[in-house]
Amino acid sequence: MSYALDESYLVEPTGDAALTTENLAVYYGGVHQALFDANLKFAPHTITALIGASGSGKSTFLRSLNRMNDKLAKVTGKIMYQGVDLNSAAANVYAVRSQLGMVFQRPNPFAKSIRANIEFALKAHGIKDKQHLAASVESSLKGAALWDEVKDVLDDSAMALSGGQQQRLCIARAIAMQPEILLLDEPASALDPLSTSKIEETLVELAKQFTIIIVTHNMQQATRISQYCAFFHLGHVMEYDQTDRLFTQPHLAITNDYVTGSFG
Ligand SMILES: Nc1ncnc2c1ncn2[C@@H]1O[C@H](COP(=O)(O)OP(=O)(O)OP(=O)(O)O)[C@@H](O)[C@H]1O
Question: Where does the ABC transporter domain lie (predicted)?
Answer without folding.
Answer: 19-259
